[in-house]
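Worked example 3 (structure in, sequence out).
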């Protein structure tokens, strides 16, 4: 009996250890990487001053890349990236650069409806527990539309 318990404990420790290593290798060192690649405020201010007529365009781009965007605030970038807008995030979920146009084909509903009541198991759990407000949904849609137009 003691030999079985000891074998079980050793197997358990080895299993958790290997699981941790595999998970760490697959996920990378996500704890030390920033979730969003943001421009520094100093760089943005000097760019805005130097470019005159392009300052409005730079400000609009900076808003989507800023760490205070809705995708960062709501934790979307924990699993997803938006490469088209240089938003670095997790690698578990798909890149959202084309989500604005691809969700309808993939899930059979427009993205507006998907963000309200997603049909995927993972996203229904995420959004179902903490639904987006109308204002947040509009912000997400604006960012995803901008991303789809960028690529």
């Amino acid at each position: 009996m003691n030999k079985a318990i000891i074998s079980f404990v050793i197997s358990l420790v080895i299993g958790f250890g290997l699981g941790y290593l595999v998970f760490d290798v697959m996920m990378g060192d996500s704890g030390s990487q920033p979730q969003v690649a943001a421009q520094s405020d100093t760089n943005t201010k000097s760019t805005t001053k130097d470019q005159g007529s392009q300052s409005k365009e730079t400000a609009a781009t900076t808003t989507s890349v800023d760490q205070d965007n809705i995708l960062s605030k709501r934790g979307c970038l924990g699993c997803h990236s938006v490469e088209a807008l240089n938003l670095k995030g997790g690698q578990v979920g798909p890149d959202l650069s084309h989500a604005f146009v691809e969700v309808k084909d993939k899930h059979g509903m427009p993205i507006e409806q998907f963000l309200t009541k997603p049909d995927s198991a993972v996203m229904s759990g995420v959004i179902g527990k903490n639904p987006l407000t109308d204002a947040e949904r509009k912000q997400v849609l604006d960012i995803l539309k901008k991303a789809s137009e960028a690529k």
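Notes: Confidence is low (pLDDT under 50) at residues 28-65. The chain has two domains: 1-32, 35-150.
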